[in-house]
Write a structure and sequence with these properties.
There is one protein chain. This protein is mostly beta strands. It has 15 helices and 85 strands. The chain has six domains: about 30-175, Jelly Rolls (Sandwich), CATH 2.60.120; about 180-315 and about 325-355, Jelly Rolls (Sandwich), CATH 2.60.120; about 365-490, no CATH class; about 585-735, Jelly Rolls (Sandwich); about 740-905, Jelly Rolls (Sandwich); about 940-960 and about 985-1130, Jelly Rolls. Strands 2, 3, 4, 5, 6, 9, 10 and 11 form an eight-stranded antiparallel sheet that branches.
Length: about 1250
Amino acid sequence: MDSPALGAVALLLAGFWHLGLTATNYNCDGALVSTLPSSAFTSSSDFFSTHSPSFAKLNRRDGAGGWSPLDSNEQQWLQVDLGDRVEIVGVATQGRYGSSDWVTSYTLMFSDTGRNWKQYRKDDTVWVFTGNSNADSVVHHKLLHSMKARFLRFIPLKWNVGGHIGLRVEVFGCSYKSDIADFDGRSSLLYRFNQKLMSTFKDVVSLKFKSMQEDGVLFHGEGQRGDYITLELQKGKLSLHINLGDSNLHFTNSHTSITLGSLLDDQHWHSVLIERFNKQVNFTVDKHTQHFRTKGDSDHLDIDYELSFGGIPVPGKPGTFQRKNFHGCIENLYYNGVNIIDLAKRRKPQIYTGNVTFSCSEPQIVPITFVSSSRSYLLLPGTPQIDGLSVSFQFRTWNKDGLLLSTELSENSGSLLVYLHGGRLTLLIQKMAEDPVEISEGCPDNFTDSQCLNPITAFQGCMRLIFIDNQPKDLILVQQGSLGNFSDLHIDLCDIKDRCLPNYCEHGGKCSQSWTTFYCDCNDTSYTGATCHNSIYEQSCEAYRHQGKTSDFFYIDSDGSGPLGPLRVFCNITEDKIWTAVQHNNTGLTRVQGAGPEKPYTMSFNYNSSSEQLEAVINSAEYCEQEAAYHCKKSRLLNTPNGIPFAWWVGRANEKHLYWGGSLPGIQQCACGLEESCLDMRYFCNCDADREEWTNDTGLLAFKDHLPVTQIVITDTNRSNSEAAWKIGPLRCYGDRQFWNAASFNTEASYLHFPTFHAEVSADISFFFKTTSLSGVFLENLGMKDFIRVEIRSPKEITFSIDVGNGPTEATVQSPTPLNDNQWHYVRAERNLKQTSLQVDNLPKKVLEAPAEGHFRLQLNSQLFVGGTASRQKGFLGCIRSLHLNGQKLDLEERAKMTPGVKPGCPGHCSSYGNLCHNGGKCVEKYNGYSCDCTGSAYEGPYCKEEVSALFEAGTSITYIFQEPYPVTKNTSTSSSAIYADAIMSKENIAFSFLTAHAPSLLLYINTYFHEYLAVILSKNGSLQVRYKLSKDGLLIFTIDSGNFANREMHRVKINREGRELIIQVCHGRSFALFPHSLTMDPEVSKANAYGFTGCMSSVWYNHIAPLKAALRHPSIAPVTVKGSLTESSCSSLTEADVNTATTIYSSSDPFGKTDEREPLTNAVRSDSAVIGGVIAVVIFIIFCIIAIMSRFLYQHKQAHRSSQTKEKEYPENLESSFKADTDLQNTVSECKREYFI
């Protein structure tokens, strides 16, 4: 037997409908139903003849007093035939007279033919009308958008719980007159001009159309020089092609094409409006408008002879392209105010009518919608055929997967499946048992798994024009229950929706969709989130600093989620001011010659950004500047005191400015003029003296409203020996006016109010807060029904509440610790069409998915309340700062200045951010934020995290001397007191990092007045030794033999001892470093010292003192002495060659021989002079000079030492013996912060 044949399956690209405009007739409010005959009313069913739809007129009491269906369910409907197309502006309903039957909510559908219905929508949502609350009261609704239709259906959704569906209706509107032309795919209208060439600077074209075809030209015009304009349907979308005045059409890029709309081949009316003025074009399809500018240089459109509507009748002209003619109806076609169809109907000579009729032929199509992805199916009977099977239908869907058709083939030949998989159409035939032949679209419940094999999912989408064995299937009979079977279908309606029109993916995100939702691809947009709403960059350099970033190039997004894109800047993150620098295309010194008034020299500056981006950066900063320098030799600048300037600059808004750097706006002077320091006091600029020698006028332009500099013009370098050179520096700003902008709310009744928050489809709110209260409202904005609110409901609970008309949605984040701890906490709430989310600090984000249907526009109309509510209940006590709404910054401080109960600013930043000051840095409170004081740290930088390191060559040393013990008596809490007390070796806190390729080396040595000492050395084999001698104890040696530490890698060492507990930490990587030295060493330490240390040291630290930092930063005031060559260098940037160069000085000698590194060295020791003045092995020498001290200080010193010895005797015997043992730490130090407890 031949293989069964599959009929044609036509894939439609989707169909969408749009609502008409509001009524243009001011008196369009007449009752349309009251005069209709009974035959105008039909329904899905009626309970009895006395409940028939003919009794459904408003206020009528005949029959049973209204319409009631046989069964009260959501499949029932009441239909009104208004006799002709009318404009509908309102409806009214009642229940059934004197009964308990009424409808509480309903929807509306309309149609021109009584088939292919369209749902009334508002904001792309099927609108649900509120019905009645009793049987006899009348509820009116005025439509936001009028409908043009002949047929209207009322679809009850809900009804009185104690009764049934009961309905009486009225429809309000007026007659609708229009001019219609019907095109059959071969016909067209030609509009011929009065002259040969029509050249226009302005064009307006408007029309409405309906079609079942996805392709076709609606109108076209072209000229001999290459001008053309074409509007055509392409795959169900409208494309506008336009080219203005370019004869070289194929060799230029002046062609402009814009595509708009979607699902336009659905046999519903769609409106089009094209408005062109010069290059500016507004293109509107239904309610969606796109504004664009045409390419090329011309402003006018030159059309030869004629415009064609409905197709291109005469191909072959220059620029003409082959396209399908339009097949469908066009209504109210106007070109530049001319009613084209009216001229054609009246057979005017300028119109050529090519086989066009003037009434719209309506194909009686009945589409169906498979609503559910699991329960929808349509079961249709088929006729057994031995010689084959023919099935055809058209379908459309957004889903890439879904079963379209399944059937059993005759004579046990198998089963046939047609389905979508990954967007591709697949046909599958398989063997199966004998069964009756049936054909289905979708998957009915009574089919077995094998019969309805679906490796994907059930179909969701629309179908129409279903033919089985070349016979059309009447789906109205299916709806009436007399043909086949179905479940979860919308019959006579294609309920597909293009969720990517408009595109709610922001910032250029690419939209894709399924039947139920849309998705946004945010790649390459610099934004993230469900709708590409959130910038991946911070809003300022201050925000990067707060993250602990160091100076570098960054992208900043000044308006966050707003329309402005990110801008690349350099953030100079220093301890005092955070500078933001924006470079332009010419920041160097540029020489100029030969420029005069008639031939001026001009230079425009490109900052690789838009003017709006630069203005946003400037406006958000506290201060901005640009350096302006003019070097001149016989070249005048401003021609002061009263002449016309020979040079000027252009700033923001293309405004010309006649003052120079260092002067003030409106004063035609240079800096020397204000300072009265010009070379010639008769002039206000040095260059205006017009001297033969080089001089200059240099200063800062710092008036923010005039920046940035966009152009400079010079006109006085064309005389003999005249020359100039100019320089405009980068735009530099500091200070974020918003990041620390805060307000303190002192009473629960206090609040700040701002204008209404407008965020219909996308909203984000972010701020910091701190409080000690149990609850309070941070922010609230109300509408008629909608609202938005962020509040702290309990010490551990933050809630974001929002209602867009579908009922309140609440996103709540629970914190494991209380949030009312008077610390700053961060809150970010966001709502878009896909999600509602809430983020608190770094806790897991709470995300709620938005419903696929329903209201989605947030309509607010009250003032925005910050720190309270409109009812003045549940106000917030505490501080709020850095409040942003959709990227816009709210100035809390300025509003707080004029509001009782609220104070600008909020102290106490260090309580939250003091931990950001590292390595002994101290947090310093400021009005706007905080800073880290690194004076007492071995590190520097904004957070005391930048290492201070130096490269030591052979013979280099630093001596740090503690000479003055008097601070102990003046202030026992000072760091000097701690240092002096450490002279008796009660405890040490030492840290250092080192990088070397040389061993042996002495790394650390400390001794005291009592001949106690601590030494850290690298042995010959590269192992690390810590050597202690405390009081009368013998020498204690601790060896960390975990590899060679002289391996050209950075090593971090920390040593902490208090009493008899010693902790040593060693790890690889950049860290701390300290190297003390004493005048009195044991022989082994002296030997290591004699061979010197060469390498790199970083961030040296000893009991609150940073000797290396003092030597590098304050050599003239700190008690330091530097010998040899000390070079500041980043240890991490040193190459292996650098280390080898510095560390091969002793590679030829081996004075240590084969001595056991764990025993005291026995070789001869060099003389003291060699230790002090020769090759110095120690990077840092800390010498405790305890001399010339009064006897009572010495007595106190000895007493402290004796007390220490007494306490040592109190330790347990096992600890004493273990501490005195010569301990060998063989554990491998393979990871950071491994600790050795001894």
